[in-house]
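Today's session is about reading a structure prediction critically. Students often jump straight to the picture, but the first step is always the sequence itself: look for stretches that repeat, for charged clusters, for runs of hydrophobic residues. Only then move on to the predicted structure, which in these notes is written as discrete structure tokens rather than atom positions. Here is the chain we will use throughout the hour.
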Amino acid sequence: MPLDNLYKIQSKTAQEIWDSYTSSLLPQSLLFYGPKNSGRLTGAMDLSFLLTGEEENRDILRSRSIIYLPQRELGGRIKTALELFKTQRTKASRLFLLESVRLSLMQYHPALSSAATSTSSSYFSMAGEIEEVMLALEDDKDFTDKEITTMYKTIERCLDPKFLYGGKRSPSAVTIDQIRAVQEYFSQLGDEKVVIFENVEDATEGAKNSLLKMLEEPDEKSHMILLSSNPQKLLETILSRVRKFQFPIIGEKKTANLIKEKFGVWEEYPSFDSFFFEKGSGEEARREFDEDLKVVADSLIFSIPLNGEKEEAILSSLEKLSAWRHFVESLLYLLEKAWKEGKISSNKAKKKTEILNSFFLSTDVYNMGPRMAFDLLLREAISVK
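Below is the predicted structure for this chain, in token form.
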């Protein structure tokens, strides 16, 4: 069924999109907005494969007509997908690996090669090599140990941060050169084309103006889906030219059930970030995480400032692991546990919880870097006496 992945997450929004599509009232330019992990990307992929007539390839995410320009950390997801496939070797784990890797490959569409820098140009050929492995993985067959080893080594190449981020050091907004390449792509005759822009509100003014031009004069058979967690930062002229669909926040209970259903696990995870960290990280990384968590939790609960050197080491470790959200969620859990055990008063626990909870608002809505947001909020929470 079309949009079936989205229906499981956001049934009301999925129905709104489907009604617009079936009544031919769906415009070429759309905005999917809502907080992180609310299903915006899932909805964009479901709709993109519907628009391009490639629904049969949705589960394996194979398309030559869809471009996705990510601005999110995909490494943890790919590591998790690899670990699950290594240990389970089920159809579900194989499909998840295909989907996860191809999310990173979609930014290396041939149409974008003209926008490649000297640094990122080599990654286009690397993406082609990884795609060959993905095509082999589509065949549900038994692989020899040698084939499996070679496959893993090739896939692990895409965990290079610069490959994940299109030749950059970290996730960053679409560039004006990429938008111009998309404009050229749209002008080509042929089948339906879709481009998914993530967090376009963070782009430069020049890039936003180029995007606006495409929105004002859309080419035939071209579709744009903008994903945003902070739409108020978009130009009013852009907002007036897109059809908006809201993706409300998904609660922890529903998220835990979605993870259980999709991955067949018994444990409850409050977020996909925590699941990806626990399943995708090695034993040493998890041990280091747990040690740092105990140090910070004690500092928070007993209002004892962290040693400057130790604090810097912990921040650097979390940055390396990209485990900010999971760390904050774990701190909140330990804070609640300490209150229940009588180690901290209800009033203090409430104040500290409110401060830590604003981390998600700072990073998702106000687009503050996670390291800075966490550092500032942790110090504030620790100072509550």
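Discussion point for the tutorial: The beta strands are 29-33, 66-69, 193-198, 222-228, 243-246.
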